[in-house]
Specification:
Elements lengths: L10 H10 L2 E2 L11 E2 L13 E9 L2 E16 L2 E12 L2 E13 L4 E7 L18 E2 L6 E6 L8 E3 L1 E2 L6 E14 L2 E13 L6 E7 L3 E9 L4 E9 L1
Parallel strand pairs: 1-4
Antiparallel strand pairs: 2-6, 3-4, 3-16, 4-5, 5-6, 6-7, 7-8, 7-9, 9-11, 10-12, 12-13, 13-14, 14-15, 15-16
C-alpha cells in the first residue's frame, strides 16, 4: 500500500525474491539498538500472519485491486527479524505490480520499515535481471530503515519511512487522530490521517487513513493525481 512507484513482477518472480533475500547481509543493528521482533502488534498497523487486506480503486486510470498479504515468513534484514508482506496490485484484472516488504517492531511498539524487493517483467513476460531502482535493504549502499508507524502517534509528528538517496525517500506527517472516513468495509470516525510525499515525485501528495486493529483503510492522492484505494474486505487463513 505504499505510494512509491513499484516495478512490475509476477507471482513466480515474487517467490524468487523471497528466496533470494532470506538473509540480507550488512552491519547488524546490534549493540545499543532496540530489540526488534517480527511480531508487529502496533494497533494502528497490526500485521497478523495469514491476513490479507483487499483494496479496490483506481490507479493509472485503470480499475485496481490491491492485495496486502501478511505472510507467516520471517526474513532477516541486516540481522533484524522482519515480517514479510507481499503487496500485489492488479490492473483491469491482471497482475501488474508486486513488492516484498519487510517490517519489524521495536520494544517500544514503533514499526520500522527495513526494505523491499522488486523485479521487472519485459514485454515478453520474462523476468529482468534481479534488482531494480525500487529494491533496497537497510545498511546496503547507505540505505537506512525508517519509522512506518510510531507507537504513540501525535498530530504534527513527521517521520521518514525509508531512505536510500535517489531511490527510496518516502516521508509522512500525522494530521489527525480522529478523522472520519467511509470505505466499502465500513465507516470510521476515529481514524489516523497522514500526509505522505517523496522528493522523488515532487508535487504529488497522498492522504492515508489508518484504523485501530486494521491498519490502512484508504489511500488517496490529493495533489498531483487521482489515484485511490479503499479497503473492501479482510481475508484470514
Amino acid at each position: 500500500m505504499a505510494r512509491r512507484a513499484r516495478a512490475v513482477v509476477t507471482a513466480a518472480a515474487a517467490l524468487f525474491l523471497v528466496g533470494a533475500t532470506a538473509v540480507v547481509a550488512g552491519n547488524a543493528w546490534g549493540a545499543g539498538s532496540p530489540k526488534y521482533s517480527a511480531n508487529v502488534t502496533n494497533p494502528w498497523f497490526p500485521l497478523k500472519p495469514g491476513t490479507t487486506l483487499v483494496y479496490e480503486g483506481v490507479k493509472d486510470g485503470q480499475n485496481a485491486v490491491d492485495e496486502f498479504e501478511v505472510t507467516k515468513q520471517v526474513v532477516k534484514v541486516d540481522g533484524v527479524p522482519t515480517r514479510l508482506v507481499l503487496d500485489r496490485l492488479y490492473l483491469e484484472g491482471k497482475l501488474a505490480e508486486t513488492t516484498a516488504d519487510y517490517y519489524t517492531q521495536d520494544g517500544d511498539g514503533d514499526v520500522h520499515y527495513f526494505g523491499e524487493d522488486t523485479a521487472t517483467m519485459d514485454e515478453l513476460g520474462n523476468m529482468e535481471p534481479f534488482g531494480t531502482d525500487g529494491t533496497w535493504h537497510a545498511a546496503e549502499f547507505g540505505a537506512e530503515p525508517g519509522i512506518f508507524m510510531p507507537a504513540v502517534p501525535k498530530v504534527g509528528d513527521h517521520y521518514r519511512q525509508e531512505y536510500l538517496k535517489g531511490h527510496a525517500e518516502d516521508q509522512f506527517e500525522i494530521l489527525d487522530l480522529s478523522a472520519s472516513v467511509t470505505v466499502p468495509y465500513g465507516t470510521f470516525h476515529d481514524a489516523l490521517k497522514t500526509k505522505e510525499w517523496t522528493a522523488l515525485e515532487p508535487g504529488v501528495v497522498d492522504n492515508k487513513y489508518y484504523v485501530r486493529g486494521i491498519g490502512v483503510v484508504e489511500e488517496r492522492t490529493v495533489k498531483g493525481g487521482d489515484e485511490h484505494l479503499s479497503l473492501k474486505e479482510i481475508r484470514s487463513t
